[in-house]
Amino acid sequence: MTTGGTIATEVGTDGIARHASSGDDLLAVTGCGDVRVDDLMAIDSAEMTPQRWQQIAAAVRGHVAGGATGVVIAHGTDTLEETALWLALTCAVSVPVVLTGAQRSGDHPESDGPGNLRDALTVAASGQALGVVVCFAGGVYPAAGIRKVDLTDAAGFAGVAPIGQVRDGQFVRSAQAPPAFLGTVTRPALPRVDVVSLYPGADAVALDAYADAGAQGLVLESMGAGNSNDVVIDSVSRQVENGMHVLVTTRVPGGTLTPGYAPGQRLVDAGAVMVPHLRAGQARVLLMAALATGSDLVSVVERLG
């Protein structure tokens, strides 16, 4: 299934990468056979939306119901981590679902797209019970915790240990990913969850505005170890009292988040929930899925956050 992204682009004379390749074009370069192509959409992944997640999920279920023994989704890297986690949380199928993409355009002399796609097809054809995974630069990763960490390097993704690798055309599995499925979500309208990035001198304007816009949940991208100032903490307390669900993550790329300082503990006391490992993008997806499936948020965070 193609959705667009760098893997399907070529760079024009103006230096800008634009979509140029269909799924058949991508497949022809890999040399793989017995693959049905579904050109589902052709967008920059910055244009991905929750409604499009649902479109992808419905297509996955439809192809599996039609006899597919594995599914590969070619996706732009900017939001691949969000789509992967949404599918892992809400789209349970009995075959491997593998997301991949590229850091370099299809016409780049060292394009990584064909190799990534070939590896992803290898993983999808393995017949192993994997759920939803990401295959990139030879590594195979669970959806929860994966994140883009570099704009140009071929590896591109990190944040979680791989569960296997593709070596010499074979998928070699080394670990089992924890089950992530929460429940099937089929309705197009999903709970609104917004992200608020904190900074020195941050006030409550953004939090209050999102609440007024109908947000059911907020993710605070905190400073350091889950910390915030008094103004934001007071706003969180008010929002939680009004029924808002608040998760706290951090802008720091690495490490496990815990409320080790007084401001972070005050956020927890105000009713916010600390997310140990996921950063803002995937924490938002986790909160959306928990709300959409009626799952207990604390339990979900303890298991997957």
Descriptive overview:
By secondary structure, the protein is an alpha/beta fold. The strands form 4 sheets. The chain has a 6-stranded mixed beta sheet. A 4-stranded parallel beta sheet has the order 11-12-13-14, sandwiched between helices. Strands 1-2 form a two-stranded antiparallel ribbon. The chain is 32% helix and 18% strand. This is Asparaginase. It comes from Mycobacteroides immunogenum. InterPro entries: AsnASE_II, Asp/glu_Ase-like_sf, Asparaginase/glutaminase-like, Asparaginase/glutaminase_AS2, Asparaginase_C, L-asparaginase_C, L-asparaginase_N, L-asparaginase_N_sf. GO terms for molecular function: asparaginase activity.
Index terms:
four-stranded parallel beta sheet, 32% helix, alpha/beta, 2 domains, Rossmann fold, six-stranded mixed beta sheet
Low-confidence stretches: none
Strand content: 15-25%
Distance between the terminal alpha carbons, to the nearest Å? 28 Å
Main CATH class of the largest domain: Alpha Beta
Q: What name does the CATH topology of the largest domain carry?
A: Rossmann fold
Q: How many beta strands in the DSSP annotation?
A: 14
Number of DSSP helices? 9
Q: What number of domains?
A: 2
Q: How would you sum up the major sheet? A: 6 strands, mixed
User: What is the name of the CATH superfamily of the largest domain?
Assistant: L-asparaginase, N-terminal domain
| Adjacency order of strands in the biggest sheet | 3-4-5-6-9-10
Q: If you compute it from the alpha carbons, what radius of gyration comes out, rounded to the nearest whole angstrom?
A: 20 Å
- Name of the CATH architecture of the largest domain: 3-Layer(aba) Sandwich
How much helicity do the residues have? 25-40%
User: Which structural class fits the helix and strand makeup?
Assistant: alpha/beta
* Arithmetic mean pLDDT: 95
Shape: globular
Order of helices and strands: EEHHEHEHEEEEEEEHEHEHEHH
